[in-house]
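Field log, afternoon session.

UNIT: design team B
ACTIVITY: writing a sequence onto a fixed backbone
BACKBONE:
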């Protein structure tokens, strides 16, 4: 049984039956056949399906990453929100995907603009603390000063800008402070952004294949699309905001850090983004998570598994440990088309585009990405002449940057979903091995998710609606 918006609505209406909401009876317990399906679903799956119902087709991973990034705004400092750049060709649907995902959030979660003057970030009075700043088209951050202010906000969690103003008493210095933490979502047709901004963002790319175009056309032809189903998800996020910023403990963080190969400097930032996404997923599913003595939500192996599936390819590509499927397909096609003696080792953009069954604009962007990474070359040395595309550096061998859950969690140990007799249960390392204090099993200090009176907020009824479990975690025995 998938977690559809109707389920979340049920959860919300059961929260405050005396405040004007109709009480909706809980769903019937699942049959054994239904249980397997239910245990494979999550609230993240549910919101992805709701976004798909609103017309976003074929971009499930992109939708989930944007949703988790916006949810990460609610993490307690020093943990920072995750910032993302959504890239792709013109008319690729970047803005539509972002706008639709933001439709599942209250306006208080983000501040969306098309651009800003170079000093606007310093002088604007719009609150940015625990919010996402959304800039449609990166050209809106084109000036060096605007980029500098944004980097300060992302890296330091605030903007401190001292300026000089003319007053009746003469020129006076004034310190302007903009409190964060703030995350950034930006869309762009550019292959890359300012180098110092690029390393502070996860780069996400919309799908540019013919198959994706067919899905989009079919979606546009479907007049049943509606954003009305997102109301329940907005209420869910409103409730999460009411709880205030939350802290999430990742018991296996140290072991994970040991297993990530230090192949690039940018991993120092990317690894922090991975941990924030894990925390955001646990925060979203907090009703089926334990808390420790300090009331921190305890992330599970399931939280890592979901996030790894979403970001492992992005991280590997970002550090040059692997390449995306589109880059690999493009380079391999150029290699095929430039084999002697048929050619002199070069191919035109038009021939390549035809061979890839892509329009020239999309093929050109793919080639630009490959050239920027060094895997293709443009041997044309005359300005204004067509490109002469040739192969460059060899494609890298596949390198696993993030370990699989099987490798991270010793199968002979107990699990991460909960703690039993001082060790983790559901697949994980012993907390003491990671330098973490073992959470107490005393019910007075550990909030167990199998006691209905200890559940809070709009997810209270999850245990009733899903007695067989949520997102793979057993809610009630």
């Amino acid at each position: 049984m998938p977690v559809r918006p109707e389920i979340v609505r049920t959860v919300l209406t059961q929260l405050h039956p005396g405040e004007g909401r109709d009480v909706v009876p809980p769903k019937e317990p699942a049959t054994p056949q239904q249980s397997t399906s239910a245990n494979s679903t999550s609230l993240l799956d549910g919101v992805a399906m709701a976004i798909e119902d609103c017309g976003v087709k074929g971009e499930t991973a992109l939708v989930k990453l944007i949703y988790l990034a916006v949810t990460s705004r609610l993490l307690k400092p020093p943990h920072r929100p995750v910032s993302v750049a959504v890239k792709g060709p013109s008319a690729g649907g970047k803005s539509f995907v972002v706008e639709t995902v933001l439709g599942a959030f209250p306006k208080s979660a983000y501040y969306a603009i098309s651009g800003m003057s170079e000093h606007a970030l310093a002088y604007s009075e719009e609150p940015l603390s625990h919010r996402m700043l959304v800039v449609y088209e990166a050209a809106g951050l084109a000036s060096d000063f605007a980029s500098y202010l944004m980097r300060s906000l992302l890296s330091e969690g605030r903007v401190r800008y001292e300026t000089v103003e003319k007053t009746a008493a003469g020129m006076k210095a004034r310190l302007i402070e903009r409190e964060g933490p703030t995350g950034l979502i930006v869309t762009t047709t550019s292959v890359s952004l300012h180098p110092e901004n690029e390393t502070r963002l996860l780069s996400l790319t919309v799908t540019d294949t013919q198959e994706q175009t067919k899905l989009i056309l079919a979606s546009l032809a479907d007049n049943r699309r509606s954003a009305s189903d997102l109301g329940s998800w907005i209420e869910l996020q409103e409730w999460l905001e009411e709880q205030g910023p939350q802290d999430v403990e990742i018991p296996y963080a140290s072991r994970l850090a040991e297993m990530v190969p230090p192949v690039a400097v940018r991993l120092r930032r990317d690894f922090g983004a991975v941990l924030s996404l894990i925390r955001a997923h646990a925060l979203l599913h907090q009703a089926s998570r334990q808390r420790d003595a300090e009331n921190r939500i305890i992330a599970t192996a399931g939280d890592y598994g979901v996030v790894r599936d979403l970001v492992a390819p992005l991280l590997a590509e970002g550090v040059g440990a692997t390449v995306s499927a589109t880059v690999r397909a493009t380079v391999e096609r150029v290699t095929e088309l430039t084999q002697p003696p048929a050619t002199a080792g070069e191919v035109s953009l038009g021939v390549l585009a035809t061979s890839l069954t892509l329009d020239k604009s999309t093929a050109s962007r793919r080639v630009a990405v490959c050239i920027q990474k060094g895997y293709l070359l443009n041997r044309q040395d005359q300005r204004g002449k067509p490109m002469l595309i040739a192969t460059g550096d060899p494609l890298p061998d596949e390198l696993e940057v993030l370990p699989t859950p099987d490798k991270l969690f010793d199968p002979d140990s107990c699990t991460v979903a909960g703690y039993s007799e001082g060790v983790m249960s559901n697949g994980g390392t012993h907390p003491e091995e990671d330098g973490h204090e073992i959470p107490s099993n005393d019910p007075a200090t550990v909030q167990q998710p199998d006691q209905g009176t200890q559940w809070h907020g709009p997810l209270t009824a999850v245990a009733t609606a899903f007695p067989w479990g949520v997102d793979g975690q057993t809610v009630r025995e």
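LOG NOTE: Residues 1-5, 11-41, 413-477 have pLDDT under 50 and may be disordered.
NEXT ACTIVITY: expression trials, pending approval
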